[in-house]
Specification:
The protein is 68% helix and 0% strand. By secondary structure, the protein is mostly helical. The N and C termini lie close together (9 Å).
């Protein structure tokens, strides 16, 4: 998860929230994370 966070330039907690479907992650950030996965 740390590698994905580093590539997407977000925190590991943000990656966790995005992967768990939290509504607190913006669509743009979610796209950056999914591209890094």
């Amino acid at each position: 998860m740390a590698d994905v966070a580093h590539r997407a330039e977000v925190s590991a907690m943000t990656v966790s929230r995005a992967l768990n479907g939290s509504n607190s992650v913006s669509a743009a950030t979610r796209e950056k994370i999914m591209s890094a996965v």
